[in-house]
Amino acid sequence: MLSNKVTPLSRHLSRALGLLAAGLQAGALAQQSPDLNAMPLEQLLNLDVVTASKIPQKISEAPSSVWVITAEDIRLRGYRTLTDVLQSVPGMTVSYDRNYNYANIRGLGTPGDLNTRLLILIDGRRLNDVVYDQGAIGTEFPIDLALIERVEFVPGPGSAIYGSSAFFGVVNVITKSGGAVQGTTTSEGRFSNGGREERAAYGRGTPGGVELLLGASAYDNPGRNLYFPEFDDAASNHGVAVGLDYDRYHRLFAKLGAGGFVAEAYVSSRTKGIPTASYGQQFNDPRPWTLDQYAGAALSWHRAVSDTLDVFAGVNVARYRYRSVNVTEPPAQGTTRNVDTAESLASGAEVRIISSAVSGHKIIAGAEYVRDSKREMGNYDLDPYALHLDVAHPKRQAAAYLQDEIRVGQSVILNTGVRHDVDSEGGATTNPRVALLYKTARQVTLKALYGTAFRSANAYERYYTFDYKANPTLRSERIKTYELIADYFPTDRFRATASVFQYRMRDMLALATDPNTGFLVFSNIDAARATGVELEAEWLREDGSALTGSANVQSARNDANGAWLPNSPRRLLKLNYALPPLGEHLRAAAAYRFTSRRRTVLGGEVGGFGVVDLNLVGTMIGSHVEVSAGVFNLLDKRYADSASEEHFDNSTPPRHLNAIGQDGRSWRVVATVKF
């Protein structure tokens, strides 16, 4: 396990960064990408986005819905995890089981599925690992939010551009340039329940166009004692898990850009205590924990070869390592500990060209190759040692994609795309998408969207055999989506969007019991559909205040029996209000988030709830010092999320958790110094 002490990273890094800054600062004038925080408000409502098509496009012209959360949103609202960011997105809810966070998009997403159907990108490159396909959005996410320029979320299928896992949506985390940071910052944070965080960052741009960004952060929170009514008896400490909700991580990030080249690397490690007695463990046992480690590096090159031709090329490598310690027997000398492990290593390359040589057309053509050289899983006992699982199944993937943005006069854009993937395990698949955009007037754009996507079964689903049966012949999951969008933009400071959508899924993977062996096995047995209406509006006022709101009415059901899907809320409402400046150096943001009742995995229900958050940001001493203070769940609302199937203890018979209570009122104070 990792040390439970947070090292003073900011102190040591600041010294190193300060020395480097002295060398670069003399005469340096930053040459940086556009600063979103300094842009006029009217431009923020129709930003250029890149995630929908891998090229810059206005939001109103993108072949999908796109939601953007900027660095200023993150700063003003006090977000500190990617989960916080995604909770503000229309149609998105995130549940938490005290270990991982699970996204639900437009009513689709089950606790425990590790976000395998949500593709997470860092600067356009895949983060989901190649053993579990896990989309990290909690404290295990490897990039500090202070280093993020913006987050773009595209709901719906993205396989026509990105391939497998771009099933329910794509999240692209776009990091800052060195010039955007322009200096050295150190931060110190204090949280409820004794939590502590330290951050340091250095960024600089030079007259020659060199951009350097370095960042480091560390976090330690011992967590609160938690009560679980299902475990309330004398033998289980009356249902109270003491000191087991701890969470700690370390992160490092570096990015260097020059002459069209960008190189970046990250490494992170998170250790999380397990308070829920999952997988038949002893409740209130301090020994179980999980470890998630991410590392990645990439080099890319982009250049406008001519007025009508852009070329992009990139290579990358990504590594993921997982460890979990499980103990099913009461604490005693000689008690056997079970260790579950996974390791993956993937490397890839991509080439892409963008041509506007043909009048009225913007053509994107690209090819990718990925080699998953390491996909290993293991399971063994300690004291005494016994090996239960040791499998390794490397694989290869290749793909080619083509997209054409066709402009017909001033009012019509036809966006068509197709991607063909070849997977050494899952075979070949082709996924098209079509988007027809019609500008009825200056203020209104109508979009009609159709697309398909797939998700290839991952290594865990195909080959895990400890109390499971392997099923290497699994088919890929499939989805077809239909969506109509109306985007209304009557002024430079107001935008409203309404959409109607339907998702149809087949060959969905689910666990079933094999009648011959009695073991659990993954099979393509489910089909489902989701239908809904989504409304969103944003109003930026002259006094500096901003109001955004969204509402969803949706239904997600199993096709076979019409059952309401677990963890699927039928109604969502979100409001965010940024107050005008409260004096020269003080701003505030308030948020309200309502989620209606949901079915649990075990067939029960959790009630609906509304949560209010408040955050204040103040600057002083010539804007070199900033203090952010937030209170979250301000009204101390009690609410819970559905538990997944693995949350049960070692009693006879096992006691299963139906729901997992979430945090009540909490607070955070962060002081940042820039020099």
What does this structure look like?
With 675 residues, this protein is mainly beta. The chain has a single domain (9-674), classed as Beta Barrel (Maltoporin, Chain A), CATH 2.40.170.20. It is built from seven helices and 39 strands. It has a 22-stranded antiparallel barrel. The longest helix is centred in the first third of the chain and has 17 residues, at 9-25. It starts with 8 loop residues before the first helix and ends with a strand.
List the helices and strands and how they pair.
Layout: H1 9-25, H2 41-44, E1 48-49, E2 57-58, E3 67-70, H3 71-77, H4 82-87, E4 92-96, E5 101-105, E6 118-122, E7 125-126, E8 148-155, H5 159-162, E9 169-175, H6 178-181, E10 183-191, E11 196-205, E12 211-221, E13 226-227, E14 240-241, E15 247-258, E16 261-273, E17 289-306, E18 309-326, E19 337-355, E20 361-382, E21 386-392, E22 395-408, E23 412-423, E24 427-439, E25 444-455, H7 459-463, E26 468-469, E27 477-491, E28 494-513, E29 520-540, E30 546-558, E31 571-578, E32 586-595, E33 598-599, E34 605-606, E35 609-620, E36 625-632, E37 640-642, E38 659-661, E39 666-674
Parallel strand pairs: 6-9, 26-29
Antiparallel strand pairs: 1-2, 3-8, 4-5, 6-7, 8-9, 10-11, 10-39, 11-12, 12-15, 13-14, 15-16, 16-17, 17-18, 18-19, 19-20, 20-21, 20-22, 22-23, 23-24, 24-25, 25-27, 27-28, 28-29, 29-30, 30-31, 31-32, 32-35, 33-34, 35-36, 36-39, 37-38
